[in-house]
């Protein structure tokens, strides 16, 4: 395997010099793009879009046709794994994802097994392969999964929740059952991410969207240790190239040092922590990804440019170790032209900073 022609994203994750700060956006293929909405309409539903490799490839490439992004990310959903476990994923308009058979009974938790990603999730692997072919070695492709704890939140609650009462009750009343769910899910995620790597993903990311809602002790026991187990089990090299991993805990700024110690190559940061402070705390161990507030993209172009420059200035001197991103997923209400301003600003200003450093 040869690296993509634009390999700045991979180089940044591996703390190698880059000619500009690479940029991609969480949820970059999404409802803020009219072309995405058109494809989703043709698909009939979000789930059908995810399960159609050709259409998943189409929407993955749409933002790259519009913007000069430095990486593509597989179009899929974190809940494909529990769906493959037999929990019956469905989406209700305006209410988000739900499961027909949430994990509420002890027997169901004891019977939980890890799915074969090449069987139950074959459509994802076919999508990864198709996207890699379509990218034609232009930019890297990112594979991803939800973290075991984040997936467990949906699996136990049966959908989204404002307080995660059922999950946290299980953590404190029946930790044995929660550890059973997390253990099986960690095995599932490890196999799932490795299958994505074998199918063509050149970097992988673990989204721990709800880990930041745990207490410090519970985070270590019920989220972080399982992500560490996944990272340890990942394929680290394929066809002579390193496969870097990114771990992102939304709301995890208090625990950056602990996350940096689990063996991942990069930490994703939300917008609540200064990236310069994060670099001072852990930057010698890992690369950093982030961390503009997504709501900045609703502001005027001048303000978007100013805020993007603040992040780059805060990261500080040097041409290694930073992937620019939002602190969470892009909003469906974001004006598409505002993303153009962001991408151009990051690329142009980061080149200026590199010249100043020399």
Topology:
Elements: H1 8-13, H2 34-43, H3 46-50, H4 53-66, E1 72-73, H5 80-87, E2 89-92, E3 96-99, H6 106-110, H7 122-135, E4 141-146, H8 148-157, H9 165-173, H10 175-199, E5 203-208, H11 216-233, E6 237-238, E7 241-242, E8 245-249, H12 256-260, E9 266-268, H13 275-282, E10 287-289, H14 301-315, E11 322-323, H15 336-357
Parallel strand pairs: 1-4, 4-5, 5-8, 8-9, 9-10, 10-11
Antiparallel strand pairs: 2-3, 6-7
Helix pairs in contact: 2-4, 4-7, 8-10, 9-10, 10-11, 13-14, 14-15
Structure, explained:
By secondary structure, the protein is α/β, with parallel strands linked by helices. The protein contains 15 helices and eleven strands. The chain has a seven-stranded parallel sheet with strand order 1-4-5-8-9-10-11. The protein has a two-stranded antiparallel ribbon with strand order 2-3. Strand 9, helix 13 and strand 10 form a beta-alpha-beta unit. The radius of gyration is 19 Å and the shape is globular. The two termini are 32 Å apart.
């Amino acid at each position: 395997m040869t690296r993509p022609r634009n390999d700045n994203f991979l180089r940044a994750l591996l703390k190698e010099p880059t000619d500009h700060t690479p940029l991609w956006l969480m949820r970059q293929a999404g409802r803020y793009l009219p072309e995405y909405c058109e494809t989703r309409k043709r698909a009939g539903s979000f789930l059908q879009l995810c399960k159609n490799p050709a259409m998943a490839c189409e929407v993955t490439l749409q933002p790259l046709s519009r913007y000069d992004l430095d990486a593509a990310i597989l179009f899929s959903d974190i809940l494909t794994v529990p769906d493959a476990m037999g929990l019956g994923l469905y989406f209700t308009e305006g209410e988000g994802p739900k499961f027909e058979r949430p994990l509420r009974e002890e027997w169901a938790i004891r019977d939980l097994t890890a799915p074969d990603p090449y069987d139950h999730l074959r459509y994802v692997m076919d999508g990864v392969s198709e996207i890699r072919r379509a990218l034609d070695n232009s930019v890297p492709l990112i594979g991803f999964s939800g973290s075991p704890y984040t997936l467990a939140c949906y699996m136990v609650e049966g959908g989204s929740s404002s307080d995660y009462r059922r999950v946290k009750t299980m953590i404190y009343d029946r930790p044995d059952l929660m550890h059973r769910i997390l253990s099986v899910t960690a095995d599932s995620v490890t196999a799932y991410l490795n299958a994505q790597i074998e199918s063509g993903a050149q970097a992988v990311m673990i989204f721990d969207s709800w880990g930041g809602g745990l207490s410090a002790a519970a985070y270590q026991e019920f989220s972080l240790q399982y992500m560490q187990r996944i990272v340890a089990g990942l394929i680290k090299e394929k066809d002579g190239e390193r496969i870097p991993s990114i771990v992102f805990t939304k709301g995890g700024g208090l625990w950056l040092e602990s996350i940096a110690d689990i063996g991942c190559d990069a930490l994703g940061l939300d917008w609540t922590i200064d990236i310069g402070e994060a670099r001072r705390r852990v930057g010698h161990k890992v690369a950093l990804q982030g961390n503009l507030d997504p709501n900045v993209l609703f502001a005027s172009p001048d303000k978007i440019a100013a805020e993007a420059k603040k992040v780059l200035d805060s990261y500080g001197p040097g041409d290694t170790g930073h992937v620019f991103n939002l602190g969470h997923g892009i909003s469906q209400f974001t004006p598409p032209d505002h993303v153009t301003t962001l991408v151009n600003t990051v690329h142009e200003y980061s080149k200026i900073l590199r010249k100043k450093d020399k």
